[in-house]
C-alpha cells in the first residue's frame, strides 16, 4: 500500500513536505533514488501522461564511462616569461637563461620572482619579435637579386637602434658630445621621427660611445688572437705641450688580406726611450698580444732604447721570431726624408727665397686677393693655389716649388705694382732682415737672420 504525501499550502509561504517518502526510509535516508519511468503515450495537447508504469523498489545501476588515463598535471600559474627563458638549477639557486642572448637572471620563485625576466624580453637585442606590438612602417630595401630594384619591407621603430646610430654618427663625423643637445638638432629629430623622444643627452651618448668602443675592442681582440703582428709607433708634442703616442698594428687576416688597425692613441709622460718601451709593453699586455714580428720606428735615439726594452721583456713570449733579432725596422720614409733634406742644402738659399714669397702672399686675405688679380692679368690658367711647405716633410717642399714655378710671372707683376710687396722685399743689397724662417713645426718656430 502506497502512502500519498500530504502537502499543506500556506499563503505567502513555501511548500513544505510533512510526510517522508517510505522508499527514502527504506534506502536509509538516501534521497537519490534510482527510478525507471516508462511513458508509452504522451498527449502533448493535454500535457498529461496517459500511461505511466512506475517501478518502485527496483533500481538499475548505471554504467560509468571509462576512466581516461591521467597525464602530467598542468603547471599552475606558469608565467609567459618562461616561454623565452630556460630554467636551470645550480645547487640551491634557480637561474633563468635567455633563449636569445644567453643572459642569466636569478629566478627563484620565492626570492626573486619573474619581474626581471619580463623586463628583459622587450629590451633583448636578439629577441626576433621585439616591438611586435608597435606600429610597423614601410621602408625600401635594395633588391639583392640585382636589376637595381627595391623591395617594400615592414620595419619597426627601435629607440635603442636610433640611439646607437646617433652615437656612431658622433664618432664617424668627429662631433662634440654637446651636439645632441643643440636646439636645431632636437627640432630636426622631432620633425623627422617623433617617436625618438626624449633625445639622448650628451652623458647618455658618452656612455653609448664607450659601449661601442668596448664592443669593437672585444671584436679586435678575437681577431688578433694567435697572430703575429707588425707594429708601428710615433710620438709628438701638441701645441698644448702634451705628449702623445699612437700604436698601430698590421697583420694578415684569414683571407690573406693586409689589415691595419690603430690599437691605441694615448698620452705619455715624455719622449724618453724607457717611458715609450714601458707604455708599449703595457698596451700589448692589455690586448693579449703574444706575437710581435717587427717594430717600425723612425731614427730617433729614444726609439732604439724603447726597442731594447721590448726585446728584454718579450723575449720569452710564445711567438717570438729568431729571438727578436730583426724586430727593429727603421722607417724608410724618414730615411728618405733625411737624404732629401741633406741634398737640398745646396739649394737652400733659393728655397728660402721662394718660401718667403709664398708666406707673404698667404699672410692676409688682401694680399691673396692682390695676387689673384696679378694672375688674371698674366692670363695664367692654373687652378692651383700657392702652398707653404712643412720643414720635416720633403714632399711638401717639392709641392711648394712645383706650384710656385707656375706663378713666376704673377710674382714679378706683384713686385712691380704692389707697394707693400716692394717695401717688404725692397732691401738694399748686402742688408739683412729678420724673417720668420727655419722650423715651422708647432711652437718651435723661431726667427733667423736671412737676406730676402
Structure description:
- The radius of gyration is 46 Å and the shape is elongated.
- Helix 3 (159-172) crosses helix 5, helix 9 crosses helix 11 (394-404) and helix 10 packs across helix 12 (408-417).
- Residues 12-20, 33-55 and 427-452 have low confidence and may be disordered.
- The longest helix is centred in the middle third of the chain and has 23 residues, at 202-224.
- It has helices spanning 22-26, 115-123, 159-172, 183-192, 202-224, 273-286, 301-314, 332-343, 348-361, 365-377, 394-404, 408-417, 419-425; strands at 7-8, 16-17, 36-39, 42-43, 48-49, 52-55, 85-90, 93-98, 104-106, 137-142, 150-155, 229-237, 243-252, 258-268, 292-297, 328-330, 433-437, 446-450.
- The chain starts with 6 loop residues before the first strand and ends with a strand.
- Strands 14-13-12-15-16 form a 5-stranded mixed β-sheet. Strands 7-8-9 form a 3-stranded antiparallel β-sheet, covered by helices on one side. A two-stranded antiparallel sheet has the order 1-2.
- It is 35% helix and 20% strand.
- The protein has 452 residues and is α+β, with helices and mostly antiparallel strands.
Amino acid at each position: 500500500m502506497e502512502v500519498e504525501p500530504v502537502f499543506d499550502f500556506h499563503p505567502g509561504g513555501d511548500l513544505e513536505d510533512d510526510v517522508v517518502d517510505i522508499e527514502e526510509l527504506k534506502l536509509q535516508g538516501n534521497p537519490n533514488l534510482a527510478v525507471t519511468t516508462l511513458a508509452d503515450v504522451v498527449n502533448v495537447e493535454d500535457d498529461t501522461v496517459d500511461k505511466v508504469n512506475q517501478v518502485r523498489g527496483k533500481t538499475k545501476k548505471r554504467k560509468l564511462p571509462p576512466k581516461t588515463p591521467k597525464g602530467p598535471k598542468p603547471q599552475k600559474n606558469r608565467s609567459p616569461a618562461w616561454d623565452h627563458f630556460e630554467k636551470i638549477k645550480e645547487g640551491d639557486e634557480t637561474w633563468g637563461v635567455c633563449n636569445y642572448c644567453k643572459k642569466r637572471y636569478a629566478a627563484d620563485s620565492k626570492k626573486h620572482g619573474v619581474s626581471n625576466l619580463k623586463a628583459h624580453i622587450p629590451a633583448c637585442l636578439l629577441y626576433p619579435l621585439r616591438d611586435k606590438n608597435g606600429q610597423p612602417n614601410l621602408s625600401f630595401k635594395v633588391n639583392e637579386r640585382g636589376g637595381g630594384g627595391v623591395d617594400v619591407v615592414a620595419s619597426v621603430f627601435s629607440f635603442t637602434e636610433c640611439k646607437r646610430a646617433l652615437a656612431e654618427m658622433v664618432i664617424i663625423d668627429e662631433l662634440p658630445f654637446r651636439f645632441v643637445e643643440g636646439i636645431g638638432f632636437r627640432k630636426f629629430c622631432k620633425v623627422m621621427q617623433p617617436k625618438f623622444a626624449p633625445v639622448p643627452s650628451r652623458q647618455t651618448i658618452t656612455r653609448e660611445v664607450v659601449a661601442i668602443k668596448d664592443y669593437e675592442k672585444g671584436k679586435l681582440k678575437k681577431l688578433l688572437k694567435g697572430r703575429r703582428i707588425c707594429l708601428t709607433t710615433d710620438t709628438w708634442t701638441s701645441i698644448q705641450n702634451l705628449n702623445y703616442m699612437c700604436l698601430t698594428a698590421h697583420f694578415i687576416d684569414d683571407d690573406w688580406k693586409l689589415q691595419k688597425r690603430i690599437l691605441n692613441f694615448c698620452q705619455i709622460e715624455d719622449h724618453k726611450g724607457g717611458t715609450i718601451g714601458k707604455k708599449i709593453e703595457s698596451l700589448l699586455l692589455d690586448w693579449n698580444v703574444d706575437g710581435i714580428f717587427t717594430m717600425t720606428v723612425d731614427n730617433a735615439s729614444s726609439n732604439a732604447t724603447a726597442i731594447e726594452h721590448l726585446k728584454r721583456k718579450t723575449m720569452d713570449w710564445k711567438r717570438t721570431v729568431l729571438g727578436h733579432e730583426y724586430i727593429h725596422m727603421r722607417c724608410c720614409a724618414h730615411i728618405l726624408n733625411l737624404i732629401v733634406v741633406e741634398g737640398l742644402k745646396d739649394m737652400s738659399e733659393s728655397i728660402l727665397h721662394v718660401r718667403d714669397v709664398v708666406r707673404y702672399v698667404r699672410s692676409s686675405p688682401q694680399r691673396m686677393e692682390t695676387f689673384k688679380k696679378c694672375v688674371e692679368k698674366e692670363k695664367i690658367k692654373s687652378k692651383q693655389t700657392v702652398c707653404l711647405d712643412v720643414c720635416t716633410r720633403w714632399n711638401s717642399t717639392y709641392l711648394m716649388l712645383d706650384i710656385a714655378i707656375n706663378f713666376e710671372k704673377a710674382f714679378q707683376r706683384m713686385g712691380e705694382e704692389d707697394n707693400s710687396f716692394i717695401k717688404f722685399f725692397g732691401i738694399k743689397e748686402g742688408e739683412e732682415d729678420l724673417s720668420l724662417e727655419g722650423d715651422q713645426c708647432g711652437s718651435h718656430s723661431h726667427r733667423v737672420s736671412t737676406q730676402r
